[in-house]
Amino acid sequence: MQQYLAGFGQWVTVIQGVIFVACVLTFRRGVVGEIAHYFRRSL
What we know:
By secondary structure, this protein is an all-alpha fold. It contains three helices and no strands. It has one domain.
């Protein structure tokens, strides 16, 4: 990820933090938990 964000200079850490927080808020059960919830709901 740092390779792709290298053009943003010193903002790389801030951008990575925002991406991390967004992932935590989106996948509160974890990635595996979200997938399991999706399959349970669709059956």
